[in-house]
Amino acid sequence: MDIDPSRRNKKPRLLLESERERLDEFIDSIHYSARYSDDKFEYRHVQLPKNMLKKIPADYFDSAKGTLKLLWEEEWRALGITQSLGWEHYEVHEPEPHILLFKSAVSVISRAPVA
Q1: 1 or 96, greater pLDDT
Q2: What contacts 31, CB < 8 A, 6 or more positions away?
Q3: Helix (H) / strand (E) containing 109
Q4: Residue 94: pLDDT above 50?
Q5: φ and ψ of 84, to 5 deg
Q6: pLDDT per residue over 40-73, tens digit each?
Q7: Is 45 helix (H, G, I), strand (E, B) or coil?
């Protein structure tokens, strides 16, 4: 499940202040799923408000797929997505392009049984 570098901007494209301000109204409406995991990764999906997609700059999108590109951490944080360190945007749910899929390596501590 490696990240395809062709689905990202070559380097993070930071938002201009005016672009960031257009997104502020949506930040409180971003939905974060519960975490789920397998042996290698912890996962979660982040659901952006559908109207927010209209305010995100065009160069954040993959025109061939009609979805957001895979975003660098600096990019998804600039959109207002807040998560702990270590999360990586690895996929977009194409039927619902406002849903972004994230993964983080499972640590030994998080796999330890709870007493």
Answers
A1: 96
A2: 46, 47
A3: helix 108-111
A4: yes
A5: -70, 170
A6: 999 999 999 999 999 999 999 998 888 999 999 9
A7: strand
Average predicted confidence (pLDDT) for the chain:
89
If one counts every other C-beta atom within 10 angstroms of the C-beta of residue 32, the result is 13
Q: Is the Cβ–Cβ distance between 111 and 104 less than 8 Å?
A: no
Q: In this prediction, what percent of the chain has a pLDDT beyond 90? A: 74
Cβ contacts of 94-100, under 8 Å, gap ≥ 24: 94/65, 94/66, 94/67, 97/53, 97/66, 97/67, 97/68, 98/47, 98/48, 98/49, 98/50, 98/52, 98/53, 99/45, 99/46, 99/47, 99/48, 100/45, 100/46, 100/47, 100/48, 100/68, 100/71, 100/76
The structure tokens 């042996």 sit at 39
CATH architecture of 14-111: 2-Layer Sandwich (3.30)
